[in-house]
Amino acid sequence: MQQKTKLFLQALKCSIPHLGKCMQKQHLNHCNFADHYYNRIKLKKYHLNKCLQTKPKISELARNIPSRSFSHKDLLPVKQEKEKSLSKNMDAFEKVRTKLETQPQEEYEIINAEIKHGGFVYYQEGCCLVRCKDEEADNDNYEVLFNLEELKLDQPFIDCIRVAPDEKYVAAKIRTEDSEASTCIVVKLSDQPVMEASFPNVSSFEWVKDEEEEDVLFYTFQRNLRCHDVYRATFGDNKRNERFYTEKDPSYFIFLYLTKDSRFLTMNIMNKTTSEVWLIDGLSPWDPPVLIQKRIRGVLYYVEHRDDELYILTNVGEPTEFKLPPWACGFIMDSNYDPKNCAFQLCSPIRPPKYYTYKFAESKLFEETGHEDLITKTSRVLRIEAKSKDGKLVPMTVFHKTDSEDLQKKPLLVHVYGAYGMDLKMNFRPERRVLVDDGWILAYCHVRGGGELGLQWHADGRLTKKLNGLADLEACIKTLHGQGFSQPSLTSLTAFSAGGVLVGALCNSNPALLRAVTLEAPFLDVLNTMMDTSLPLTLEELEEWGNPSSDEKHKNYIKRYCPYQNIKPQHYPSIHITAYENDERVPLKGIVNYTKKLQEAITKHTEDMGEGYQAPNIILDIQPGGNHVIEDSHKKITAQIKFLYEELGLDNTSVFEDLKKFLKF
Question: What does the subunit comment say (predicted)?
Fold first, then answer.
């Protein structure tokens, strides 16, 4: 049975006249040019296409970094005895983990900060920005363009590269693991490449060339995680750097995107629910931009261009259904532009990406031939539904081994997110593949608040409907148990960032459903965070969580589910939290306060229960440096898996050897 994936695609087919001769070079005043230029784009008819937009991937450079942890066992004045003896298995684990942590860290997702332009490939080699001829990409014959050590940053790496149209310049965004702030360098390409300029706190950036063959760099400036300003700069003899646009609404942010054919630069102004796009003519970048559609509350859209037609990806209108392989859960666009074909990859949490190509001329989809991954035969993927408290059917995606017997006795790892209208991430993860091979059941709960079923699905799980997501999650786990998938004593739950709200709320309201929980950079103190307007993202988050500072209804509603506010003396599942010291999005203070309050409640409950009560383990692993962009180091992965195996009392004799194999994928 093939999966029907609903893509909210609606294409607006437009004739694109030349956007006018070069006008006087001037700053853009907010929205002044919309009425004058919008009528220059003639609406023709709707056009459907499923290949629209991709965003640059961030290279995930895993490194060994020190960490400090403290456990509930260190803080409670209660003697505890293990219910199980796993010393032999733990010795095996420690041996394998030592090997993993001492060998070079390797990426296992097919993403990298490299770009092809002209006849060259630009990428990072060691601590240098380099390029080599395309046909020599597999050799070590490369040209060093810039040494990152000149910036005097701690372990810098490149996460984005852009090359000027005529290859006179290359720009690269460089950051470190302990900050989201990035520096953009511009290198002049010549016999002896030299850094022409550098700009601090850059988020997105793109090149265009004006009618005088001059390269122009547009970039956004980020301050306290907020991108409100766009600048444009030129180099060489005609060097300048000027502000191009400023967004006045603090709840919106800006990112730049160059259409795949490089014909237009799009300036995307958006918040969590609404967007507005301006087109900057790639042939006349000094002309005023053209507004596609002014912002309408609740309407999100993005723009792509091909063959003098605009393609609009939006959440408005009827969806188009496409049939995909039954195992497909993740979609990854190819970053290289091809006007005749659309190349992309499909994957699942346990299946590595497989390449597909959609040929426009033939209107047909072609898949990569060759070796078929064995996981498609040795595992099953199920699409099931749970009935929530109000009768709403909530979809779930479940994976397990085909030959598994008595699934009720198998460990279960449940995944959830449910916020911002974002789909639960289901890209390939080697550690998830290893868990399924070792007999685990994986379940992905697509609860309200996420984006899997469209705009209304998100609306029904935000603001004063956030408790719907909690009810959905509880219904999903109960349905899994009711249908014979595992049992509470073998059930674990995992989430990242905003997904921590639902997980923390469930631990308070129905902890008996779970044995163990792993959280990463979790959002756990919703009320205090949303009342602190000094935090950089509070204003942007108001449409998701509400405004408890000015709206008493919002304040009282948040109190009903906020994980921190609802901690009480009772039995809790064991919880492993990974936090990052310099996380600007989820402040460490809120996580530490949550952990401390939870430990106090457990201490009280342990005293009330008396001798013989086995208290749960609460572990807070604080990674020094770091930020909200997760770096998937072997150390972190193995620590989380070790925690799950220990808490569920499982034999891990073979799992870490298998994990070592797949981390080399």
Answer: Homodimer. Interacts with the AP-1 complex.
